[in-house]
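Archive maintenance. Older records in this collection stored only the sequence; we are now back-filling the structure field for every entry so that each record is complete. The fields below show one back-filled record exactly as it appears after the update. Entries are processed alphabetically, and Long-chain fatty acid transporter is next in the queue.

ARCHIVE ENTRY
Title: Long-chain fatty acid transporter
Organism field: Salinivibrio kushneri
Length field: 430
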Amino acid sequence: MSSLFKKSLVATSLSLLAVQAHSAGFQVSETSVSGLGRAFAGEAAIADNAAVGARNAAALTRFNTTAFSGGLSIIDPDVHADVEASSNPVLGEDSTSLDGKDIAPTEYVPNIHIIQPIDDKLAVGFSAFSNFGLSTDYPKDFYAGSIAGSTELVTMNFNPNIAYKLNDQWSIGAGISAIYADAELKRQKGALANIPVGLGGPGGKPTDQVAKLTGDGWGFGWNLGTLWELDENNRFGLTYRSQSDITLDGKYKGPKSSSNSVPGELELNLPEIIEFSGFHQLNQQFAVHYSAMYTGWDSFEELKATGSQCSDNTCFQKDEGWDNSWRYALGATYTMDEHWAFRAGYAHDESPVSAEKRTLSIPDSDRQWWSLGATYTANENLSIDAGFAFLDGDQVDGSEKLSDDVSNSTVDFSAGGDAYIYGLQLNYLF
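Back-filled structure field:
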């Protein structure tokens, strides 16, 4: 059993990063509901509520009173990944499922922000939100259960910021991030259980669990931003958020630990993010806004879990080699009257995973965002945002080995998915 699974289960690390329900890779964009309604076009420049603190610290200077925003986004994905059985008859198809339907459960992404001006030049703020996360759950009897099972990664970014207004046109800002991450991963034997024990098979049933990883940890990062206000109707924002390295400490159970639960750790590299945004108020009713976001996924070179009780001190290791990616967004806002404003947006989100790197645990693809949103302003203090987005992911194909130790164990797969995102947010000026 150990020999058979050691190489195939190296890929279990991959599932810490997956699924087409969010932004490309395992990035999460839902830092505000007002932004959701415009496909996050112009987020580093608009500053229409306190949620801008998650995107551009410099924009805190646009507030002359205490501002609060808090919201919740509900991500309802419809993601599938189906496989074709290997040509190796010894693997068989008995007691396994070839269809991975609805493999991404509904998830809830909260955000909360507060901005406090100190004087007419200095402001501070605090934001709590998520930049990265995922959840996938393949059937327990999935044919490729050894490389695709159930996974959850949750991160939360706690981000205090400070901003200073240099003059009427320029503001600068900076912040630090304390990022908490929690992960759980499980794998089953899948079709490998059909291999007779006499031929090196593990025995048991396809639904038997063969690997489990749990862990949590903290990492730290920093962010910089600038805001250039040509005038009250035209402004630009440029932001940088640093790479963050998080060490997840926990337990690993699998072939390289002789199936015992042993201490282990995994370093997760969260990439740097650069965003440029523009906002233009064309007249009293219409505004246009746009963004270009660069994510430095090339820092994601490998996933490696280590532990003193794993053979060679390595529980698993997998080379990644992701590419850097871009996200482009364009949106518009229509202010109907003093109470109602409506917005819409479109975004193209590039995948950082090339076709040759695509696996069942990362069936990533380019996707298109189509968004609608509205704001109801009850009075000069209170407003409520609602947002909706439809994410259309490309259909992609790939192939992957169940095990390097089994000849003809390559499976072909087809994957694709869409997602519906709904959100509500409350904003209050004190």
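Update note: Residues 1-21 have pLDDT under 50 and may be disordered. Helices lie at 2-8, 33-36.
Entry marked complete.
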